[in-house]
Amino acid sequence: MSVNEDLSSEAVLHVERLQKSYGAKEVLRDVTLTARAGEFVCIVGPSGVGKTTLLRCLAQLAPADAGQVYVDGRAVTEPPDEMAVVFQDYSRSLMPWMRVGANVELPLRHTRLSKSERAERVRSALVDVGLTGCADLYPWQMSGGMQQRAAIARALAYRPDVLIMDEPFASVDAQTRSDLEDLMLAVRERIGVTVVLVTHDIDEAVYLSDTVVVLSGSPATVAAAVPVQLGRSREQLATKSRPEFLDLRARIHAMISRKPADRPEDRTESAVAATSIDRPTR
Ligand SMILES: Nc1ncnc2c1ncn2[C@@H]1O[C@H](COP(=O)(O)OP(=O)(O)OP(=O)(O)O)[C@@H](O)[C@H]1O
Ligand SMILES: [Mg+2]
């Protein structure tokens, strides 16, 4: 069995040689990445490199031109049931005329869950994101950070194996952003969901991740998949002042700023990381 076949069957999410063009503009070329059960993977890269395009293709919200996405070892061609997506703009993702509880319940209406099972899912998802007792509020009665928590609760209520997030904390203030980062780490720890999160904030990526995937170039390729060995327990000030954190941040920064022609050693690291056996596991 080849390495790639092996990864595609073991991984919760495996993206194999994805290609995407818009007309004559080639955006993604041969993008391969893997997320294992409970792994937190952040995708970083400069603005316009193709991060949102990659998420849309891997969630099957936009068709790729070539390549394959596997979820739990199964090749998928339409939005998979095991996946939930949270976007940056919470104000457009929540229905303003529906109370928070109804918003969180919305995707569950298409499932076979009974009314009481749905109510229990909504209740526990709101507890998970720290919105206990907020089910009867309207989105516009809550702060931006609370609205994004509600959007995350809606994704969690669905109990996905993989949570896909595109710049989910970009529209909130710095303190709320740190709180939401820690919330996501706690949620991952508690329910074991696999998270693939796009950010252009390198500090955020290193702080959250087990693996940081660096996209760069035009068309975008994976410059590196960098393992982050900072342990599972993280704390904003202490973790971000560790020498290993600062070193990773500097290395990733350099990779993003470098031109594609300068990166042969990063490609080697990418190949090693993709097959590495010392990655964080649960
Ligand atoms: N629907 C589309 N039609 C045509 N071109 C598109 C479309 N969506 C994105 N693009 C182009 O594809 C490239 C990648 O865009 P994308 O939104 O994926 O980048 P990004 O890395 O998410 O950027 P940002 O960090 O600013 O969110 C850009 O050049 C963009 O203009
Ligand atoms: Mg984007």
In words, what does this structure look like?
With 282 residues, the chain is α/β, with parallel strands linked by helices. The chain has 2 domains: 1-78 and 187-263, Rossmann fold (3-Layer(aba) Sandwich); 83-159, no CATH class. 39% of the residues lie in helices and 22% in strands. It has 11 helices and 10 strands. The protein has a 6-stranded mixed β-sheet, sandwiched between helices. A hairpin with a 2-residue loop joins strand 1 and strand 2 (25-35). Helix 5 packs across helix 6 and helix 8 crosses helix 10. The two termini are 24 Å apart. Residues 51-52 line the site of magnesium ion.
What topology emerges from the helices and strands here?
Blueprint (H helix, E strand, L loop, with lengths): L2 H8 L2 E10 L2 E11 L4 E5 L6 H8 L7 E6 L2 E3 L6 E4 L3 H4 L6 H6 L9 H14 L15 H14 L4 E5 L7 H18 L2 E5 L3 H7 L2 E6 L4 E7 L8 H5 L2 H15 L6 H12 L7
Parallel strand pairs: 3-8, 3-9, 6-7, 7-8
Antiparallel strand pairs: 1-2, 1-4, 4-5, 9-10
Helix pairs in contact: 5-6, 8-10
Adenosine-5'-triphosphate binds next to helix 2.
Q: Give the neighbour order of strands across the main sheet.
A: 6-7-8-3-9-10
CATH topology of the largest domain: Rossmann fold
* Estimated helix fraction: 25-40%
Beta-strand percentage range: 15-25%
Just give the CATH class of the largest domain.
Alpha Beta
**What value does the Rg take, in angstroms?**
19 Å
Please state the average pLDDT score.
87
Summarize the helix and strand pattern as letters: HEEEHEEEHHHHEHEHEEHHH
How is the main sheet built?
A: 6 strands, mixed
How many separate helices?
Answer: 11
> How many strand elements?
10
Principal-axis shape: globular
Hetero groups bound? adenosine-5'-triphosphate, magnesium ion
Please mark out the parts with pLDDT under 50 across 5 or more consecutive residues, or reply none: 1-9, 263-282
CATH architectural category of the largest domain: 3-Layer(aba) Sandwich
